[in-house]
Fold:
Amino acid sequence: MIPKNISLIERQLLANQFKILSKIDPTEKRNEAKIEILEKGYTGRYFELFDITIEEIPFTICDETEQILNMYRRIATTMETLSDVDKENINENTIAFEGFDANNDPHYHYMRFMVEKLNLWEEYRGVLLNSHNSLCINKYRKMLTYQNHLLHNEQYNLSKSDLEHISNLLIKEEVKESAQLV
Structure:
């Protein structure tokens, strides 16, 4: 968000930055205008100073994104240990990670940054992470509620029955939502 007011100190610091930039690249004439905007305090033109148009992603979203990715890492670890017979009562499509909606969900951009720039959660490198579905976050939050219950009770490893519970929980929710549409 473009600020409506900038303190005197911040204006002076930014003006100095633009003065430095104008020395580095004297052909960039917009720097002179930006310096004057700051020095004179033309609040109606502050939008010309900032190239950043995206809002900050709140800490709660960043934390929730990491919790979701950690939850899916735990799910994947557990699924690897199960036999095909053990997986029969688990609807893998229901609990699958679908990514986040790039158009409507800031979780997507933070996850992409962590995967592509910080090399965290490398299992998602090269994977299409845009779900094109803004409802995925609701599914993840339901799953997180159960995971947090387990973690609160010091159960750090998921079991077959935990995955069955998550799967059944989501299936019941899908049936409930489908019934409401009819």
About this structure: The longest helix spans residues 59-81. The two ends are 41 Å apart (CA to CA).
